[in-house]
Amino acid sequence: MNFLPSGICFFLSAATCWLTAKVDASWWYMGTLGSQVMCDNIPGLVNKQRQLCRQHPKVMQAIGAGMKEWISECQHQFRNHRWNCNTTARDHNLFGRLLLRGSREVAFVYAISSAGVVYTLARACSQGDLDSCSCDPTKKGSSRDSKGSFDWGGCSDHVEHAIHFSQIFVDAKERKERDARALMNLHNNRAGRKAVKRFMTLQCKCHGVSGSCSVRTCWQAMADFRRTGDHLRRRYNGAVQVAVNQYGTGFTAAHTHFKRPSKNDLVYLEDSPDYCIRDPQSGSMGTAGRLCSRASRGSDGCEVMCCGRGYDTARVSRTTKCECKFHWCCSVHCRDCQQLVDEFTCKSQT
C-alpha cells in the first residue's frame, strides 16, 4: 500500500507527523517489533504519539491512507485561488515552509487535517477494519425523532471514539508547548473535529406491510466529507485574526472591530502573503503557469490569479464526448470529438 511518496514525513509544524516516512505495506506484516522500530524512527512525534503509534499500528495505517482524501478536499476547495493547497514532495513536509506562518491558510490545513483523521477513523471503525473499535455501541434500543419512535439498528458511525483518539494523538505536542501558535493549532484542530460531528445524519429504513413504515430502523451516519470541506471553507472566509489574552490561556480579537471567535471559527495570528510570486521563505509557490479564466472577474480570473502580470494564450486540442445517442436497452453511445480551445496561463515574474 502506497500512502504518499516514500521517505516523506508529513509534518504539521511541531504538532503532528502523519506516519508517511518510510511507510509501506511491509510494516504491517512486521509485527509488534516492526511497528515499534518504525514508530521510534518517525521524526516529529512526541512520546505520547510514539506510544499510541506502537499500540495502534492499524489505526496509524488508516490515518496514513486517509490523508489523500483530505488533501484532495483541500485542493478542491482552493482550486480557483492563488493558494491552491499545493503540496511538495521535496521538503520535510507536504506544505513546506507555509506551516511556519500562523496564517488563515495554515488554520484551514490544521482544521481539515483534524477533520480528516476523525472521518477516516470513524469510517474504518464502521467498516470493521480496526480491532479497537466498531459501530457505536451506545446506539441500542429505541429512541424518537420528529417522525416518531424508531429502533436503533444497522451500524452507527462511532464518531465520538474517533474524536477522542484524534484529540489525544493530534493535540499531544500542542498541549506541551502552550504558546500562541500551539493555542491556535489546538483551536483549529477542535473546529475541524466539531465540523465532522456537525453533519451527522439519522438514516432510517422502513419495515412493514407494503412499505407502511410501521417500524423504522435507524442509525447515525457521517455525511460525505465534501460537506465538512464546504463548511470549513466558509469558516476560512470568516476566520478571525486573534491575539493571546493576558493570561496566555485563550484568545482575544486582534482588532477591536473584530468579533470574538467562537469554538466553531477558524483563528489565525498573522496576515497571509499574497501568493503571487514564488517565495520559499513564506511557502508561496506563486501563480506562474497557473490556468486562469479570461472572462471571470473572480479569484480564478486572469487579472486576479496572475496578479496583474498578464497571461499567455495557447490553443490546445481537447477530446470530448459528442453526438451521444441512447440505444434500447440500455446504453449510451458517444463519439470522441476533438475540440480546439484557448487556454490562458499566468506569466512568470519578469
From TrEMBL:
| Intracellular or extracellular location(s) | Secreted, Extracellular space, Extracellular matrix
Region feature Disordered, mapped onto this chain: 128-148
Q: Which UniProt keywords apply?
A: Developmental protein, Disulfide bond, Extracellular matrix, Glycoprotein, Lipoprotein, Secreted, Signal, Wnt signaling pathway
Ranges of Basic and acidic residues composition bias in the record: 137-148
Q: Which biological process terms from the Gene Ontology are attached to this UniProt entry? A: canonical Wnt signaling pathway; cell fate commitment; hepatocyte proliferation; neuron differentiation; swim bladder development
Q: Which GO terms describe its molecular function?
A: cytokine activity; frizzled binding
Q: So which residues are the signal peptide here?
A: 1-25
An annotated GO cellular component: extracellular space
Q: Which InterPro entries match?
A: Wnt (IPR005817), Wnt2 (IPR009140), Wnt_C (IPR043158), Wnt_CS (IPR018161)
What the entry lists under Pfam families is as follows:
wnt
Q: What does this protein do?
A: Ligand for members of the frizzled family of seven transmembrane receptors.
Checking PANTHER family in the record gives: PROTEIN WNT-2 (PTHR12027:SF86), WNT RELATED (PTHR12027)
Q: Which family does it belong to?
A: Belongs to the Wnt family.
Please report the name of this protein according to its UniProt entry.
Answer: Protein Wnt
Q: Which organism is it from?
A: Poecilia formosa
Query: What lineage is on file?
Result: Eukaryota, Metazoa, Chordata, Craniata, Vertebrata
